[in-house]
């Protein structure tokens, strides 16, 4: 047993050592020698003690040929100059050496090829010192590490090939053993299976050792790379701080220059004078609320705001003087005061609620998304018929999302009280921005409404308005919305969605327009929505951004508010989700400047005078507005407690699925899959969602067949046709509560509420409603 143990080779990292018998000559025959396999070289010694001083011979495996003669003998030759006839004490030991030699040979061949390639790319100039040399050394070190890791991966690949080879041989032996009859051949077959199983185990151990070496090497270099990453991160932070300081100094000098050369009022403005002279007083600092700086980057109509001259803040006898100098009438200044007085909180406008609304829904279950559970339902089905699981949804429909735009209805209530159309336009613009505030954390997709699905939001006794939505088209999906208030305003919209998947993000582009009419002033406003972008679709945490431009137009007076939603940029110094806007009259004269963020608040400033500034860095001329102190126009309501476990719903969104008596049978509150999802029963919700979608397809096919029979068309006549040019759907579907008309003011064709819903609700008669659930 001790002799067998002595003959067993021992691996040590990339080195393999052990005793083998080497053929010397016909007189002495085979003699025992100590062999060492390292770095692609096989060397031998008479004893282990000779390793430090005397090597008896070495052969390079990169050019060697390895051949097996029998169960214990094998030959290593490099083409005739050197040939080693070797013998192991057993077949198992021989196979261990063969496996180690094959791995070492494959690695030596790769190293030789890499050295030949690197020789052709030698630098023609000596390395330089300093930072460039350090970067070059760092790069060469990384390349060396990558080559080492690559060689380890190649070792793993070679081991994998050997395992496959020996595994196949073992499988063949086991198959042959099953057909062997008991007798003389049995012992030989069993011995063969045992030997091949041993070879398979040896090769597997080699694979395990190679994996262990690769893991230890990767862990060792991972620590160094983490340290280098932290160093690079610190340098980047220092660079950002330096750039920020330079940007502040640039803005300081630019504004001081404009104040001295462009603004005639700066001579009498102590705040600007102190800033021009570099004073560090608080009232002239860059962080002062009265001295805010707005820079609409990449916008030809960019602007800058500076504090107005102190004489504009005077009252009494000076008002008439101001009117003469700036062209601002007394009524406009009074409107400024009324605008500030209208800023009372929403609670002061509301009456006591007639019922207590719910403030909590069941927590969102922590279900992991199993991709196989989706893919197995897609086998053999058309793409349009693949049901998307509710894991991607939130438990409200798109109709309810549209109704959620009324979260800040009080802005329209205030707008209805305004005497000035320009003042009213400020509130309408703030209302358009406020509708996006509920989307900042809402990465879940709302349910696609079924054709004919409706949703009512009756807050007449609580907040003075009532709202109705209906899904008026399925291909393309389109929803119509109508809301009317006792406080003198009407809101209507028709929205359809177009989306584009661009690899890392999804762009959602709302199509259609929104209109708001005020009864007292007959002002008619219209605007469109901006693009919503969902980032990190494939990998990472989902986040939402809003970007684009909105023009809110008063069609009666010609007033206009141009809003710009700045897209998020890692390199921008501006606050995230920034929104800026300018309110102008039909002559193009600016009266108000709006600023803020679409997820937090909006402020407005009264423009007292404007001047054309100097050209910017890209040759774009910016307008300098002298404004009064900014005042708050709108502020987002805080989310309810525990919103992160309730899909980040707002207080209004929590009540949208609350049961209501007397609603239509097509109301979204009655949709079963949506209710199941809210209750946390997602598996049942997925099954119910699939049933509803299949039912909708069946109803649509039947409707198409009826239309074909009525028109005496062949069955294939209307196939694939969705919508005619005039907007009438070829499947013969007509909306229940809306009708398509052309607006006489804007000239747009859209679905408008035709009446009758609330009257039918009062009568409790819903016989005309289709059975969609």
Can you put this structure into words, describing what you see?
With 773 residues, the chain is α+β, with helices and mostly antiparallel strands. It contains 17 helices and 28 strands. The strands form 4 sheets. Strands 1, 2, 3, 4, 5, 6, 7 and 8 form an 8-stranded antiparallel sheet that branches. A hairpin with a 5-residue loop joins strand 20 (543-554) and strand 21. Helix 3 (131-178) runs antiparallel to helix 4. It is elongated, with a radius of gyration of 40 Å. The termini are far apart.
What low-confidence regions span 5 or more consecutive residues with pLDDT below 50? Answer: 1-7, 119-135, 261-301, 314-351, 381-385, 716-730
For the sheet with most strands, the description reads: 8 strands, antiparallel
Please count the beta strands (DSSP E, at least 2 residues each): 28
Q: Provide the helix percentage.
A: 25-40%
SS strand fraction: 15-25%
Distance between the termini: 81 Å
Q: Determine the mean pLDDT.
A: 77
What's the number of helices?
Answer: 17
Structural class: alpha+beta
Shape: elongated
User: How large is the radius of gyration?
Assistant: 40 Å
Coiled coil: 229-256
Family: Belongs to the OSBP family.
Membrane topology: Peripheral membrane protein
Biased composition (Basic and acidic residues): 680-708
Task: Indicate the topology.
Blueprint: H1 2-7, E1 10-12, E2 15-25, E3 29-38, E4 41-45, E5 57-60, E6 65-68, E7 73-77, E8 83-87, H2 91-119, H3 131-178, H4 184-261, H5 270-276, E9 303-307, H6 318-326, H7 330-341, H8 346-349, H9 371-375, E10 393-397, H10 398-403, H11 410-417, H12 421-434, E11 445-447, E12 454-459, H13 460-463, E13 465-474, E14 477-485, E15 489-501, E16 505-511, E17 514-518, E18 524-527, E19 531-535, E20 543-554, E21 560-565, E22 578-584, E23 590-597, E24 601-615, E25 621-627, E26 631-635, H14 651-654, H15 672-678, H16 682-711, E27 738-742, E28 749-753, H17 757-763
Helix pairs in contact: 2-3, 2-4, 3-4, 4-5, 11-12, 15-16
């Amino acid at each position: 047993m001790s002799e067998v143990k002595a003959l067993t080779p021992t691996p040590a990292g990339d080195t393999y050592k052990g005793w083998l018998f080497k053929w010397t000559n016909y007189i002495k025959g085979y003699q025992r020698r100590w062999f060492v396999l390292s770095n692609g070289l096989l060397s031998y010694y008479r004893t282990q003690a000779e390793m430090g001083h005397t090597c008896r011979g070495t052969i390079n495996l990169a050019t060697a040929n390895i051949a097996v003669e029998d169960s214990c003998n094998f030959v290593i030759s490099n083409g005739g100059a050197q040939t080693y006839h070797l013998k192991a004490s057993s077949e198992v030991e021989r196979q261990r050496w063969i496996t180690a030699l094959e791995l070492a040979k494959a690695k030596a061949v790769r190293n030789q090829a890499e050295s030949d390639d690197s020789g052709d790319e030698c630098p023609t100039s000596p390395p330089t010192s300093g930072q460039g040399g350090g970067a070059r050394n760092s790069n060469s070190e990384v390349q060396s590490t990558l080559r080492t890791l690559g060689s380890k991966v190649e070792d793993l690949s070679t081991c994998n090939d050997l395992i496959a080879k020996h595994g196949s041989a073992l499988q063949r032996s086991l198959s042959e053993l099953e057909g062997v009859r008991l007798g003389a051949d049995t012992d030989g077959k069993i011995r063969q299976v045992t030997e091949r199983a041993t070879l398979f185990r040896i090769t597997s151990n080699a694979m395990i050792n190679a994996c262990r070496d690769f893991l230890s090497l990767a862990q060792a270099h991972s620590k160094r790379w983490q340290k280098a990453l932290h160093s690079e991160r610190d340098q980047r932070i220092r660079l950002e701080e330096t750039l920020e300081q330079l940007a502040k100094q640039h803005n300081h000098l630019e504004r001081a220059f404009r104040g001295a050369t462009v603004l005639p009022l700066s001579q009498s403005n102590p705040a600007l004078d102190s800033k021009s002279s570099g004073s560090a007083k608080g009232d002239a600092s860059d962080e002062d609320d009265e001295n805010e700086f707005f820079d609409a980057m990449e916008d030809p109509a960019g602007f800058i705001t500076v504090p107005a001259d102190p004489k504009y803040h005077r009252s009494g006898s000076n008002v008439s003087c101001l009117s003469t100098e700036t062209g601002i009438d007394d009524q406009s200044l009074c409107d400024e005061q009324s605008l500030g007085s209208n800023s009372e909180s929403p609670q002061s406008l509301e009456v006591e609620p007639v019922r207590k609304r719910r403030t909590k829904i069941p927590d969102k279950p922590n279900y992991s998304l199993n991709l196989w559970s989706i893919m197995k339902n897609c086998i053999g089905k058309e793409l349009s018929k693949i049901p998307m699981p509710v894991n991607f949804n939130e438990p409200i429909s798109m109709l309810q999302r549209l109704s959620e735009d009324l979260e800040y209805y009080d802005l329209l209530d205030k707008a209805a009280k305004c005497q000035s159309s320009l003042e009213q336009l400020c509130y309408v613009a703030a209302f358009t921005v406020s509708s996006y505030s509920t989307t900042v954390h809402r990465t879940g997709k709302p349910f696609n409404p079924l054709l004919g699905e409706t949703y009512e939001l009756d807050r007449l006794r609580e907040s003075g308005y009532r709202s109705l939505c209906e899904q008026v088209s399925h291909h393309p999906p389109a929803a119509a919305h109508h809301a009317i208030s006792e406080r003198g305003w009407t809101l209507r919209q028709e929205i359809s969605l177009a989306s584009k998947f661009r690899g890392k993000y999804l762009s959602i582009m709302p199509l259609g327009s929104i209109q708001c009419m005020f009864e007292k002033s007959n002002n008619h406003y219209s605007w469109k929505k901006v693009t919503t972008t969902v980032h990190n679709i494939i990998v990472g945490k989902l986040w939402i951004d809003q970007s684009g431009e909105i023009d809110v137009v008063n069609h009666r007076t010609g007033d206009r508010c141009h809003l710009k939603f700045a897209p998020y940029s890692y390199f921008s110094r501006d606050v995230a989700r920034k929104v800026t806007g300018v309110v102008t009259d039909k002559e193009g004269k600016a009266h108000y400047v709006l600023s803020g963020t679409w997820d937090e608040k909006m402020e407005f400033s009264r423009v007292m005078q404007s001047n054309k500034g100097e050209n910017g860095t890209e040759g774009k001329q910016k307008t300098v507005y002298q404004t009064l102190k900014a005042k708050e126009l709108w502020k987002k309501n805080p989310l309810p407690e525990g919103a992160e476990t309730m899909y980040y719903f707002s207080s209004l969104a929590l009540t949208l699925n609350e049961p209501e008596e007397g609603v239509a049978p097509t109301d979204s509150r009655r949709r079963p899959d949506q209710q199941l999802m809210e209750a946390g029963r997602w598996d049942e919700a997925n099954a119910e969602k699939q049933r509803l979608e299949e039912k909708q397809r069946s109803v649509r096919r039947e409707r198409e067949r009826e239309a074909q029979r009525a028109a005496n068309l062949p069955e294939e006549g209307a196939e694939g046709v969705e919508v005619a040019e005039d907007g009438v759907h070829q499947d013969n579907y007509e909306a229940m509560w809306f009708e398509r008309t052309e607006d006489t003011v804007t000239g747009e064709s859209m679905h408008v509420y035709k009446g009758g819903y609330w009257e039918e609700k009062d009568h409790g008669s819903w016989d005309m409603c289709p059975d969609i659930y």
